[in-house]
TrEMBL record:
Subcellular location: Cell envelope
Transmembrane segments: none
Protein name as catalogued: Anaerobic selenocysteine-containing dehydrogenase
Residue segments, region Disordered: 429-448, 652-671, 923-950
Enzyme category, top tier: oxidoreductase
GO MF annotations in UniProt: oxidoreductase activity
EC number: 1.8.5.6
Record has Zinc as a keyword: no
Superkingdom in the source lineage: Bacteria
Keyword line: 4Fe-4S, Iron, Iron-sulfur, Metal-binding, Oxidoreductase
Source species of the chain: Phyllobacterium ifriqiyense
Amino acid sequence: MNSEPRLALSEPVGDEIAKTTCYMCACRCGIDVHLKDGKVRYIEGNRDHPINKGVLCAKGSAGIMQHYSPARLRAPLLRTGPRGSGEFREISWDEALKLAVDWLQPIRDTAPQKLAFFTGRDQSQALTSFWAQNFGTPNYAAHGGFCSVNMAAAGIYTIGGAFWEFGAPDWDKTKLFVLFGVAEDHDSNPIKIGISKLKKRGARFVSVNPVRTGYSAIADNWIGIRPGTDGLLVLSIIHELFRTGKIDLDYLARYTNAPWLVIDNEGHEDHGLFLRDDLGKALVRDQKTGAVVRFDEPGHIADLNAEFTTADGPKVRSVLRLMAEKYLDPKYAPEAVAAETGVSATTISGLASEIARVAFEEEIIVEQPWVDMKGEQHNVMIGRPVSFHAMRGISAHSNGFQSARALHVLQTIIGSIDCPGGYRYKPPYPKPATAHPRPHGRSEHVTPGKPLAGPHLGYPLGPEDLLVDAEGKPQRIDKAFSWEAPLSAHGMMHMVIANAHAGDPYPIDVLFLYMANMAWNSSMNTRGTIKMLEERDEATGEYKIPKIIYSDAYSSEMVAYADLVLPDTTYLERHDCISLLDRPISEPGAVCDAIRWPVIKPDRDVRGFQSVLIDLGARLKLPGFVNEDGEALYKDYADYIANHQRKPGIGPLSGWRGAQADSEGRGAPNQDQIQNYIDNGAFWTKHIPQEALYFKHHNAAYQQFAIDMGFFDTPQPVTIQLYVETLQKFRLSAEGIRKPFAPSQYKQRLLECFDPLPDWYRPFEEQGVDTTEFPYHAITQRPMAMYHSWGSQNAWLRQIHTKNPLYVPGVICDEIGLSDGDWAWIISHHGRIKCEIARTDAVNGKTMWTWNAIGKRGGAWALEPNSPEATKGFLLNHLIHELLPPKSDGMRWSNSDPITGQAAWYDLRVRIEKAEIGEGFSEPHFKAIKRPGSQKEPPEEVRYGQEWAK
């Protein structure tokens, strides 16, 4: 930490400052919490913190009112009335934990798969997955399946990293920054800091987004694309770069599979796969000698344009040759895609030209010698100063995986992956897909009373890694890693309730959720989901989902549908671990991790969920949570953080390891480790050596650094996969020429969507509905002042947003006679909602949008039934079904990306009709929920320091 005296930004407002980590969004910024008389008085940014460097947004500052929210749960709750009634009685923790064990123990002993354990936007998945694995259930995942798995999976399979937590633009050196589909919540403070650097240096910022808000509003150029066509736009840019020869051939030959040889052997099981030697190494042709050699053999110059017939018979072609043949097709020309994307041909060709100009005419040379993984010495680091960033706007479509892949291919062909000025990996990435585990969950992996045979989640390398039985039937409750969603690396949380309700592929006994508001904004088809949670079996009278355990800090809508509620603390009252085993806060130039710690003690009978989970693990005698004598290994989560070892020397935190706190990355447990973090501002940083800063995927110094830090035990260089062989294996299975064969109902989708080179197809809902009946798109954005559901209970943030209108393009308003403040019916193939509208012209002309998660159910979150959130706020979720419209064959597919299972929230098609105002209530309107337990009635006006908040 910087020990130099600093100019104070304000007068002290407390008698103590506790440094910890914010949790008002997923940025994980460092904060200084000012305390006085045992109360939080003020929160500001920690200027020494590697993520936000003192910058703090409205959400972070308003953490005071999150902590003192009247919606905080006060004690464990047992349901006494019907689900949804909000009728509970408060019970002791002993009774709550005994009841949980009584429900869970028989499942573990007889059929572990009958527990479905899914977590929401928590940041402790290294622990929750470890617990679920030791319980033995195959049914575990977190929220990524309905958030951004397309971004993560497309990145890992292509470049060994991804955007946001896995990588970031080189803000200090980039000269052209192009942002795709990013709203205002993800990574907001780092992006704001980064954009300010661009503006100061005069670098150009282009935003591609249907909606011009937030970052897009301050972009130098805004491209108002039609939703779901980002991938087509990117492929058109790739077309232009190939057409004009503006690709980095040296980079492609050295660091990608562009020269790898692909077998052209139609009708045979090796068709479209890489030519390999007896050791499985991919082969290339040496341009100098014409010999076929291993791709990583030193001394050769790879032939990027190879095409020949091998001595054994099959014809082979290089990946780059296949790419040129595909992307030079006139169907990708700007003139051909302009109408589909809503972006003019001039704009597309202009953006492609600017990308090429900056990449190749403004290259950056960093005078830093380095050695690559072939042992070749480089005297300088060459940078292509064009960088990209993307998030949910690309991800949340049924074509999102291929669109995200296309963007990574675009970065790669101009040579801007992990170079000065380009995209940069964040440690512990890059990691190739082959360095990740395969998923576990088949019947042979599940044994009553034993841990699962391996981790739940992973990266399949072919159909043989799917979690299906001999008939091809899914073996997870969410159907992740099945033929329906083979590469679902984050699971499919949005399908859990629907599948459990239907008993498909099998019924479950207990649904265990943490911080996942599945009865409201975290589900598609919200009204239908509520009905599923309430519905009983006609024969037995039991609920279709027999038991639901839920943990949250606040009285969300989901609390009312739980049978047992385990109340969590606020983020200022507990320990958390932002770990390299999970979702670290690393920066491109440094390895970083962090903690939260209780800067204030709870005044309610609540416990941190992580500590509760550890207690449950001990009570259930789960391996990893008890010793050989059956005694608890850990007192609580803090004890676990300090003493747990995933393997010898590797634990949740990387700083101050070893008995003397003198090791980093690897080392024995240190009993003072958490205090070491607290003393350092609640974070740890280890800077990457200068010679290892760039080209991490092929940099020998970085690979050794990664081994020293414990990221892996042997070098794991990444050869960027422009052509993903894994996808071709699924196509061969669909063709019936490579085992295991795909079931007949999946063949067409696999053939159409699993192109090993990035492709584009229309989103499935757009294909399945009459677009003349539903001519418009409807999407949501996250507001900068709110994060998912949490913000609407916050008295300060509610002064910014208390309701959400539907923003409608002026051209649509004029067509049907709408003005600001009018009400309208929005109708999809699935349902209809009524909401207030606001006119806007800062949007794609075929797209209407709203802020997400502002609308609430009355009574939830301690809101009055007549609060604006409940009367004028609304959800688009009511219009979105978890299943696609029926097809002629009667099949109803999940409304997801067919490759990863990513929930396709943004594929929604609608029409709009003017409505009479009536009572001025948004519809559908639900009966208010009772406040659970002894949760106090909030005053009409919530102020800091009121007696009820103590």
